[in-house]
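Deviations from the work plan: none for this task. Representative record:
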Amino acid sequence: MNVPLADLVIDPLSAVLIIPAGAAAVLALMPGYWVAARVNVLASLATWLAALSLLIDRPAIGGYLFVDDLNIVFVVLSTFVGFTTSAFSASYIGHELEIGRLTPAHLRFYHAMYQILMFAMNLGLLANNIGLMWVAIELATLTTVLMVGIYRTHAALEAAWKYFILGSVGIALALFGTILVYMAARPVIGEGHDAMVWTALIERAHSFSPELLNVAFVFLMLGYGTKVGLAPLHAWLPDAHSEGPTPISAVLSGLLLNVALYALLRFKMLLAANPSALAPGPLMVTMGLLSLIFAGFMLYRRRDIKRMFAYSSIEHMGLITFAFGIGGPLANFAGLLHMTMHSLTKSAIFFAVGHIAQAKGTQKIAEIRGLTVSHPVLGWGLVLGVVAIAGLPPLGIFMSEFLIVSSTFAREPLLAIPLVFGLLVAFGALMLRLSEVAFGEATGSSAPVEASYVPLFAHLALVLVAGIYLPGPLVAWFQGVARLLG
Amino acid sequence: MDATALDVAHLLAGGMVLISFLLLYQDRMFALLNVFALHAIVLAASVAWQAHIQNAPHLYVPAAIALILKGIIIPVALHRVVIRLGIHRTIETVGGIGPTMLLGMGLVALSMVVMLRAAATADPLAREDLAFALSVLLLGLLMMVTRRNAVSQIVGFMSLENGLILAATGAKGMPLVVEISVAFSVLVAFIVIGVFLFRIRERFDSVDVQALDVYRGEQR
Amino acid sequence: MTPLAVALWSIPALLCAPMLAATAPRWSAATRRTYGACFALCFIVLVAAFVHLVGARNTAASLHLPIGLPWIGAHFRLDGLSAFFLVVVNLGAAGASLFAIGYGEHEESPGRVLPFYPAFLAGMNLVVLADDAFTFLVSWEFMSLSSWALVVAHHKDPDNRRAGFIYIMMASFGTLALLLAFGLLAGGSGGYSFTEMRGTTAALPGLVLLLVLLGAGSKAGLVPLHVWLPLAHPAAPSHVSALMSGVMTKVAVYGFIRIVFDLNGPPAWWWSVVVIPLAGITCVLGVLSALMQHDLKRLLAYHTVENIGIIFIGLGLALAFSAHKMPAAAALALTAALLHVFNHSLFKSLLFFGAGAVLASTRERDMEHLGGLIHRMPLTAFTFLTGCVAISALPPLNGFVSEWLTFQAILLSPDVPSWGIKLLVPAVGAMLALSAALAAACFVKAFGVTFLGRARTGAAQTAQEADRFSLAAMFGAAALCLLVGILPGVAIDVLAPAVEGLVGARMPSQSTISWLSIVPVAESRSSYNGLLVFVFITMSTLVAIEIIHRFASRAVRRGPAWDCGFPEPSPATQYTADSFAQPIRRVFGEVVFMARERVDMPAPGNAQPARMTVTQRDPVWDAIYSPISGATSVAADKLGYLQFLTIRQYLSLVFVALVVLLFVLMLVMLVWT
Amino acid sequence: MDLILELIPQGAQMILVLALAPLLLGYTRKVKARLLRRRGPPLLQPYRDLLRLIRKEAVLAENASWLFRSGPYMIFSATWVAAALVPTFATGLYASWTADLIAIAALLGSARFFLGLVGMDIGTSFGGIGSSREMMFASLAEPAMIMIAFTLALLAGSTQLSYIAQFMLTHSSLRVSLGLALAALVIVALAENARIPVDNPATHLELTMVHEAMVLEYSGRHLAVLEFAAALKLLLYLSLIGCIFVPWGLAPAGSSLTGYAVGLATYVGKLAVGGFLLVLLETSIAKMRVFRVPDFLGIALMLGLLAMLLLFVSRSF
């Protein structure tokens, strides 16, 4: 790697950005896929380690980049999932080469893009400037568009195209919102760069024009909400998930949605800091519930296994948005926890689904039967993953869903009813499909999969442990962040 | 800041809204492209005027981009696409031109009410600009959803984006405007290239007419 | 170690039990080791819980662990009620484990049973011990999840998969209802430990009751939430069926009692008006459905529904008495319910063991393919018969005692001043009496068709007696049925601490009454002496036998059956399960199940066989579940179109969302300023 | 010593019911025959029948199980214990608190349960038909019986027959509920004893028989025991009606020997009158079709329920 080790030690903040950027450059030039995959893993690992070191040694707040309690959660989570996904990708993508879905040139492109994506997401999370954050998220979107279309099949191209068009509109709306925030800040902070710096904004937000902030939030909600995949802005999400390479589906669901949500949360904090602005909560709650219930029903008629889990992501992002919309220390804590658990679980499910699709040679649910018979480890891994995502104990999502539901009682008890209804609808669909896919007479190939199950079960183990025991420091940390979110 | 400067800015921004209406009114492909070129040129003038009155020379860059790329290159390129791909020369609309225009007026009224009220504390120049920008944006979006042809939808998107640039340059002293305008230009270029590359003739959805009209993610 | 510590240590021990299996060389060894370990552990917990129940009276031991929900942690508590239910759970679990040491050998896919079985046991134990809402719900749902895995253990049968799906769906529904109930109990401040809930009164205690009825009722099998039960219980391996029917439904009853009697503050008068009719309908519908079955295990499962109804009648009466400040009567009703909990766990386990033994030896659970097993499996038949007598509420076995106590509680209800209850209770008393009589019919059918008569298939002809572990479990349960039946006073006294903790009174101590009678209120009112009835029956039987054998001819001749002179050798001419139920089907089924019989009689001279078809509909399924599943399906279809839109249409959605939001914002701003 | 003294009347009652049961059967047959203008068998004929049956060898079907052979004894003893617990000539006997009316009904239920089972043991279609119909009748008769018990318990404040009888003696007044209960009890008694109009004890017309169908395969001593049990049951119901609705003459607990003698005499008188009324009823109506019987029994259930409801409601005033 071309990153000097000294840099990594001295300034972890830039390391989190430079490592992926540099690795992308290297990978773009690297011919052999075997080495490239390893380099990809190593770079992701290094990024994660650098992100971890941010926990210990927090750098000073800069004009463009900064680290605070909130984004460190996201950075650590996303670099971790980025690392495990790269490990999964290493065992997955070789098979695509063997069966000729991808060429070595494609792979070079793929690995480079992977690191650019990581770079863009980290940049978006660490940016202290709302303009820079916007640029980073746009970059991440464009990168994933290219990745989604990598198989060059008609379906993949069309999914990419849909993603691209809808994403572009979303980007435009988010930009307009950003401009409005700047307009609101300018009279208070003064013209120029400072009026887009997050730390400056939040300090003075109480004296911004509340009306302008209100309008801005509508645009930001719709703009970034498109990226989060909230209904009715979700249309790109299922196709992008199902047609792209599985590692990208995992990253999309596990990370990119979170990054967009992070942007939304930042602006929500801004509004919350202004006493006369409308509370952003009701809007988030409404869209969250809408996504939850809508996605719940959409789960029933899905025939493609990856698309189904993509809808499940919409459902969970709706749930998380709902939690943050409810607000308050308890709901925010629950939202953070749920986001973490969802990232880990959903990426684990996509790992499993990737191997399944390779083993069975299809993504159609109707053609996958009896997995626990033909591929016991994989099948039970999937069962565990789906059980976790459906919110059954003792896995972590149960705890966060418990907290989300119970947090409504502190604020708006009646909201618990549609919430619980949506959860039940989605639960039914997932368990229905699970019992078809995992049980019964096995169909299709039962040839063993050459795959590493480590990332899959590592994630599930983390989710399991979190469901039983959350370490005190982690709780304190999340609670601190939850208070910050207001 | 003297009143004339404000009036000119006002005039140019208002002109953009008017041209957005003209865009909505078109039912011929080439006329649409010509009107769009006019839209872009007015945008360029408006941005340049802003550069002048704000004393911000860097704003001339977006103005130039608007003029050259969107005022000249893209309309010409789309002209050629239309001819090369043999795209139908009339524009299919959803719900007719008249209702669309009415709807557009409603949108303009909405954005005026929202913006003038919201930005009551902002300076008048920015406030008017913002209101017009929002109108342009909404009209662009309206165009995207009421036109069936891919090319007219692209035009809609670009006019939407023009509204954004108008807003960004109107926001006095906003950093990163140049970068954002460049980024958007790249985006637009991507879209146009995409249309050309995927040979999208009629609909946005069908990347290739023959095989893919059926495909909507899943077979029904 | 305190009993609570023993119980808690058993949880990790149970969860580790499958590791024993992993080290075993063969499946059979793994089976024996796992179930052996489970048996030993459950037995230890049983003893510990019993010691607490008897020794500690109603003092509570509690414990706090820093796991689970952060900032609240996991609270555990052992008081009279949980000790009693711990006894029920572990007695059933120990029996089932013992049974499974032998029965498990017949399991075709042990790998899908062994890991989940101990987890299931652990889950049930945890529910009973939990003392905060989160731990309770985690354990509750963990119990559902592990039992779901057991239900789909035989997953190749599509019916079982469907059963598993409906089961987990209903379980989850119940959990969510309980979650809402706990949310109301905890209130906005988030007091999720039971100690805090006891201290405060919920905002809407009535709503809590309804939610608990949904939550615990769906797990226990209250009509109309029972639909999963007859599907899921038979689908699981028989020892698991025994646990699910005999024990898990009792854990649900525990949940109901814990929340409604303990946490939800003083009851309102109308609570019982909701509970009692529901319980009565559950009784009758459960037993009628059971009568219509010909699958032995499904019959037993439906019968569980009936018994849950009996238990809930007791609970509803206890609520009514509590609401009207009649603690002594409430104690009687609650004692009746709890005693029935214990009794039902005994005989339902026993019957499922019997069904399992039959299934293992014949591979059949359809009664129409069985018959005459009393000859091949006499010991199993004997224990099964004991269970049948007990469950039919016939003296001198235990089922009668608890039903008798329930009747006595009903007879106290005219003193309740509320009119709703006055009018309801007689009707429910009639329902209870009706279901008791139908239960007897049902078990004459179950035992008669399965064990008596002539073998209907080869499998029934060549059946083998069950192994010694299974028999030990069955005889143990049968002996306990008899013991509780003849010494009910002891059981009532053991129960007293649990009852006293909930309603503030207890039944008069029974141990001081001469001849071990039980006297619920006063001797002038009613009394029953199981021991004497047993002694009298035994003595008079012995006297009769003695006299007959002294004076009568002892000659016995074997010959063909008489049958009014028309003996037909084919076993197909016997009465079948369906034909046995036909009179009752004609009396009740035409109304309740819309049962219709159609006979296709070929014309004279036509050699084709005549054909009779019976169609029945499940009213609950038709009225509630079909519409729900239909609505879900319609909603999924309608919304499904959103998957097939064009990009332009998707953009329209974004556009509309934007315009609507801006419009709303405008309105809000206009109104606001 | 006291204990033995107290046990003597109880033991006497046990033997009394045993001794009187066949006589009652013979008496009803005789009266019935006379009413039909036949001479009829002698009064003591049932004793002779029993003796004859006992002496005969028992023929068992080839596939009769242990339950088939032991069933009759269980049925007999359950019925006997039940019959011995109903006050006949005296109340408050030593073992009277062993079982109340509900328990007595349940004991009869036990007997019927085994009767139903043994009917199915051989695996003939007649046995099955008998069992299944018997259980159907029982499913209505038993709740009706419980309703009657409830009515009495609500009235007398006890389910103990001795206390009920005492109450009726001291509080004798006409009550609607009581009338309803009596009518219900008579219907139940007819059904339980397989009398006309529910079943015909004298028939062997195969397709309509219920009780006889179940015992079709029995012979010899087993049949004797079963017949004896049936006779005991008839006696039991008559004593039940007697002790509840005509409690006069019952000797209270700890009476003198004369008291007991008077009690005994009135008891025999009650049986004679009761038996006569029963036969009179039987000879004046026809047997019902099988599927009319549920309606008939349903009436009993409704009457019982009505009686109970009336009491439930009236107690609040």
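Residues 619-672 of chain C form one domain.
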